[in-house]
UniProtKB/TrEMBL annotation:
Lineage of origin: Bacteria, Pseudomonadati, Bacteroidota, Cytophagia, Cytophagales
Coiled coil start-end: 416-471
All copies of domain PAC, residue ranges: 532-585, 657-710
Keyword Methyltransferase: no
Keywords, alphabetical: Coiled coil, Membrane, Transmembrane, Transmembrane helix
One Pfam family from the record: PAS_4
This protein's record includes keyword NAD: no
Annotated protein name in UniProt: PAS domain S-box protein
Length: 721
């Protein structure tokens, strides 16, 4: 039987013990009844000595064995022997009347309650030996024949027939006892498997509750998980990965945002910029040392070199004058190769020779070139007594790109200042060229007229744009690179009205009044301004509501491709989110309900196509060589009379009739008795949209009814005797 491989005999022992206990209670009545019946025969045949002595000894042996050997196999063997000992007593009391052999059949039938073929052996062997003894006494003409005067004349033919009948019935009882024992074993297996499934269900519920409460380190409470448990553990693994990925992204984004703010605030002073950046990086990455080198050109030799602009060592500020040639040491090598260098095995004293950070010997060294579009402008060197993670390396490389862009911009600004100074000097020379200036003025006037015309066109475009963004239900905001709000549509203003964000409007800083979520939204804006397109859904509580909003944050680019700001579109998707959650929950519940039963469940639409079918039904079709899938036409799978019969049943249900039918179904190895319930499926308007069929296996119930009928018939025959 399926499932017995994983159920031990020790687990099933209690079920067999219960059967034996119930059989013992039945045996009590038969033992006492046999003794009373022997006394009853003594009244008519004056055999009180046999009825009292032999019957009393048998009854005494029974209670003595029950007292000291109850529950053991030897006790049941003694009971089997005593059952036919009473039969032998009845035959002697009736002087060999063969009708008493009916007690042989009664005794074996009663012993079947033990569901153990070994228990039958003493009674069978005793009965055969007793019969052979009677046959021998009759043939030998023994003096004991006077005690068996009612024994009919027996021939060898009669003896063989008699013994054959005894053995045949004994064989049938052996087969029946084995069948009963297998059924008890099967019932025990089903009970234990259901108990195990219930335990797994409780384990899955507790495990799911732990995960829902955020305890991703919770252990699964069972040694072996079912499919739902495996799905929950896979879900936990996915959540852990997502959590780690979110922590990594948060580390990188928050760090980039912090460094980006330093770069924006100090873009005009390279010394202060480098000092603040290295201080922030050492603290943020929890490093022990850090230095930033900028690529400069020697005015005398026109050669490039790396100059240490700022450094931090053990949280103390050090001002060192240090120059490293390009290609010299690890720092110079990183500058010329434009690749990150990460070392873990650093010999003592080696850092002083190659890195320029003093005599300390850290355990890990990270050197990242500052490059923008493959143009190297400097190098960052970080040292720590702890290993740098992949996230640290990725973060520092991204920061290096931002720093490189700002350094290039700062140098460009410096060059611009020098050019402006040269321009001032040239202005004095230009004042002498009045005619040329007049011509320039005329050209400027023409340019102004063109600008006025352009401004008029821009005003018209702005009016169209305002009409466009205010005729939508979405909230729209655009910001520039300094987070100042450029455009905010009326939907967004109305949403902020009466809230803590009511002060946000065009010209205001979009990060103001964000409170604890300032850094989170700043990171989103910085990612968009770095060229990334964001699409995500988060929970919103602007007005204290429990709502979900979908956000689209995209970079705003000029025709040249440079990013000048970001656009933020959002819409309320609360109903959609709740519907998704509810549908997913109902799906899990429905799947668990229809697949945790031995009944079959399936549903069809009005075109006889399968909407759903549980695993029991699929397995049943699979035994017939058919794979049942959603969308299959059930009538195409059926053949012959079955197709016609079931189409009529489906049509009855599609017309609104609910009914129950019973039928048999032939499988490869057995015949099933099924009770099927057909019901119409209606939508919320009461229209019939399909048919549901629930089929229950009543084979065991039918077998039990047949068995009761059989036993009832046998008891009726015994009463007639």
């Amino acid at each position: 039987m399926e499932g017995t491989e994983k159920i031990s005999a020790e687990q099933l022992k209690s079920f067999h013990n219960r059967v034996n206990e119930e059989a013992d209670s039945i045996i009590n009545y038969f033992m006492v009844g046999y003794f009373v019946f022997g006394l009853f025969l003594s009244i008519f045949y004056n055999t009180w000595l046999l009825g009292i002595v032999m019957g009393g000894v048998s009854l005494g042996l029974y209670f003595l064995a029950k007292t000291f050997l109850s529950g053991r196999l030897i006790f049941r063997l003694i009971v089997s022997f005593l059952f036919w000992n009473f039969g032998t007593q009845f035959i002697i009391q009736l002087h060999g009347m063969y009708e008493m052999h009916f007690f042989y059949f009664v005794s074996l039938t009663v012993l079947l309650f033990y569901e153990d073929w070994r228990v039958l052996l003493p009674a069978v062997i005793y009965a055969i030996i007793g019969f052979l003894l009677l046959f021998y006494l009759q043939l030998s003409g023994s003096e004991f024949n006077m005690y068996f005067e009612n024994v009919p004349n027996l021939t060898i033919k009669h003896a063989i027939l008699h013994i054959g009948i005894l053995c045949l019935y004994a064989g049938l009882c052996v087969l029946w006892s084995k069948l009963q024992r297998r059924q008890t074993k099967g019932a025990g297996v089903n009970f234990l498997e259901m108990e195990e499934q219930l335990k797994l269900m409780d384990t899955n519920i507790h495990f799911a509750d732990s995960i829902s409460q955020g305890n991703l380190s919770a252990k699964y409470g069972a040694d072996k998980a079912d499919r739902l448990g495996e799905s929950l553990m896979n879900m936990r693994s996915s959540l852990i990965e997502a959590s780690e990925r979110e922590a990594k992204e948060k580390f990188v984004n928050v760090g980039l945002a912090s460094i980006g703010e330093i770069l924006r605030n100090n873009a005009d002073n390279l010394d202060v910029l480098c000092d603040n950046v290295i201080e922030k990086l050492v603290n943020y990455m929890k490093a022990n040392q850090g230095g930033i080198f900028i690529l400069n050109k020697d005015e005398n030799t026109d050669e490039t070199y790396l100059e240490l602009m700022a450094c931090r060592a053990y949280e103390r500020k050090k001002y060192l004058e240090k120059r490293i040639e390009v290609g010299q040491g690890l720092v110079g090598q990183a500058a010329i190769e434009k690749e990150t260098i990460y070392m873990l095995d650093i010999p003592k004293g080696y850092l002083n020779i190659t890195s320029g950070l003093g005599l300390a010997t850290p355990n890990s060294l990270l050197i990242v070139p500052l490059k923008s579009n493959e143009e190297v402008v400097g190098v960052i060197e970080m040292a720590s007594f702890e290993k740098f993670s992949d996230t640290d390396i990725e973060f520092l490389e991204k920061v290096g790109e931002s720093i490189a862009s700002t350094v290039i911009s700062a140098k460009t600004n410096q060059t611009t200042k020098e050019l402006l100074e040269q321009s001032r000097q040239m202005t004095e020379e230009m004042q002498a060229q009045e005619e040329e200036m007049r011509q320039n003025m005329e050209e400027m006037q023409a340019t102004q007229e063109e600008m006025a015309r352009t401004q008029k066109e821009l005003s018209a475009k702005e009016a169209n744009l305002n009409a466009l963004i205010n005729n939508t239900t979405d909230s729209i905001i655009t910001i520039d690179r300094n987070y100042r709000i450029v455009v905010m549509n009326e939907v967004q203003k109305e949403r902020y009205r009466g809230t803590q964000y009511e002060g946000l409007q065009e010209g205001a800083n979009a990060l103001d009044m964000l409170g604890s979520v300032r850094e989170e939204w700043k990171a989103y804006y910085d990612r968009a301004m770095a060229g990334e397109r964001l699409d995500f859904t988060i929970k919103s509580s602007v007005k204290g509501e429990d709502a979900w909003r979908e956000y689209f944050i995209n970079p705003i680019k000029e025709k040249s491709g440079s990013i000048i700001g970001a656009s933020i579109f959002s819409r309320d998707v609360t109903d959609k989110k709740r519907m998704e959650v509810e549908l997913k929950k109902k799906g899990f519940v429905l799947d668990a309900m229809i697949n945790s039963t031995s009944n079959t469940y399936f549903a069809l639409d009005t075109d006889y196509k399968v909407i759903l079918a549980n695993n029991v039904l699929r397995d049943r079709f699979k035994q017939q060589g058919v794979t049942l899938l959603p969308g299959d036409n059930i009538l195409d799978i059926m053949q012959g009379d079955a197709r016609k019969i079931w189409k009529e049943r489906y049509d009855r249900a599609l017309k609104g009739e609910a009914f129950t039918i019973e039928e048999t179904r032939e499988l490869k190895d057995k015949t099933l008795f099924l009770s099927a319930h057909c019901d119409p499926i209606r939508n919320e308007d009461g229209e019939i949209i399909g048919v549901s069929v629930v089929s229950r296996d009543i084979t065991d119930q039918k077998a039990a009814i047949d068995k009761v009928a059989e036993l009832t018939a046998e008891i009726a025959k015994l009463k007639e005797k």
